[in-house]
Amino acid sequence: MEEIKSRYEEIYAHCATTPGWFIHQPDPRKTLDVPPEEREAFWEKLYGEPGFGIWMGNFRDILTDEKANAAISAYIAKKIRQRVKDPKVADKLIPKDHGFGTRRVPLESGYFETYNRDNVTLIDTLVDEPIECITPHGIKTRKGEHEFDILIYATGFDGVTGAYDRIDIRGENGIRLKNAWAETPRTYLGMLAEGFPNMLMVLGPHTARGNITQAISHSVEFQADMLRFMQQHNYTRVETRPEKVDEWTRIVIKAGEALLSFKVDSWQNGVNRNVEGRTVRRVLGYNGNGAHFRRTTDEVAEGGYQEFAFR
Fold first, then answer.
1. Which of 60, 119, 266, 269 is disulfide-compatible with 281, CB 3.0–4.6 A?
2. Residue 168: which H helix or E strand, with range?
3. Does the global pTM surpass 0.70?
4. pLDDT for 244-260, tens place per residue?
5. What fold characterizes domain 162-310?
6. In the prediction, which pLDDT does 273 show?
């Protein structure tokens, strides 16, 4: 750990050059261009390393090409079967409705081995035993009651816009932010919502995704510099320009829809059956290259923030 701490500045500088703001660079090769034996050895190396390498440092097409994704998904399924002793339990733990990396990856340590313990039972409440109700002692399913000392809810998130929706934020002419974003968020760089002057966001919809702490840090630095620019010019109001919002929204949607993850229902795409009305997929973040995002914001700053309107 001390060795890592001694290289913080070097690590942060490197992360600023990668697509996902992590230390990993995607392998430039396409999955199926690599011979099976070499491909397997590469995956074994990534799988055995800590961190996000198996997700962010993999072949460049595993998240965009269905055949490539099927290959890495089959490899991950094999690893799960190797680690979980009961074949039936292993089969339940292998995703059937999405490929590897198209939902958040459980980057775990010893997670699958947990199911080899005598005091752990996996209950499939989606297929085998639908939940009927919560009882004073635990959970009652269609097949019986399971008693617990502690019950942990994992119901997902009203992704990205949910927290904003819970605040009665109003912009010009009294429009509610929740209503303005009903179909899709509209922002510039994910930092300023259309029709809501001065409402700067450090992690708003349509901003960069990846290593969130790095992305937020970049947004804070960009916005702090812009606020200094406003002070120097005696501006008290900043808002978006319609043509720049249109342009950025098109860029965000094009980048998002190109990913296999957009073909999967998940809270990251705005779908959550636990939240009323969240049944339609929406592109909620900029999933393009992080280096492109940083370059874009640098160009905006160097050009005097002309993409924004001040007064």
1. 269
2. none
3. yes
4. 999 999 999 999 999 99
5. FAD/NAD(P)-binding domain (3.50.50)
6. 82
